[in-house]
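testing teh design pipeline on a random one, pls ignore if ur not involved
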């Protein structure tokens, strides 16, 4: 049975993110290898992964090499660091699908790179990245940045159970 996962803000090849976010790596290459291993430790070839942006700082060839090493059907929702490159660039780099805009998934989850404004009366949950180790309070936001999930994609089952504790799904 295939599963669906979400993850954000890998920043492959971005040496400075190690200091910006206090990531426990000496080099970008060490970080890259660790994050590839973590991804493949949970995602199978049959699974789908929504990547919520800020994927890679490398050129297309190096980015493609990384994308090819990652298991699953990969869907990129472009982040602020991805938007300098075209949708076609990301497809050529190996993503199966690419969106420049947020998506609504299962009629309830809004998948975006940056957090979207959600007032307390909205029934939706915004699954996002962008703010890395920060976190918004409340059940309307779910931060999928790698810093929160030990650099592994998180399944929709885990997300749903974290949002509705002690209730039937």
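output:
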């Amino acid at each position: 049975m295939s599963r669906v996962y979400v993850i954000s803000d890998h920043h492959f090849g971005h040496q400075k993110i190690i200091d910006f976010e206090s990531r426990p790596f000496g080099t970008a290459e060490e970080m890259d290898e660790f994050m590839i291993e973590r991804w493949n430790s949970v995602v199978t070839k049959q699974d789908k992964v929504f990547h919520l942006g800020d994927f890679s700082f490398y050129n297309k060839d190096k980015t493609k090499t990384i994308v090819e090493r990652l298991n699953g059907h990969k869907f990129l929702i472009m982040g602020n660091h991805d938007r300098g490159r075209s949708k076609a660039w990301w497809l050529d780099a190996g993503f199966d699908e690419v969106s420049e805009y947020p998506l609504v998934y299962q009629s309830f989850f809004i998948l975006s790179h940056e957090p979207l404004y959600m007032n307390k009366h909205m029934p939706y949950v915004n699954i996002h990245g962008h703010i890395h180790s920060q976190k918004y309070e409340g059940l309307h936001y779910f931060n999928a940045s790698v810093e929160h999930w030990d650099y592994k994609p998180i399944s929709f089952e885990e997300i749903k159970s974290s949002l509705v504790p002690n209730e039937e799904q």
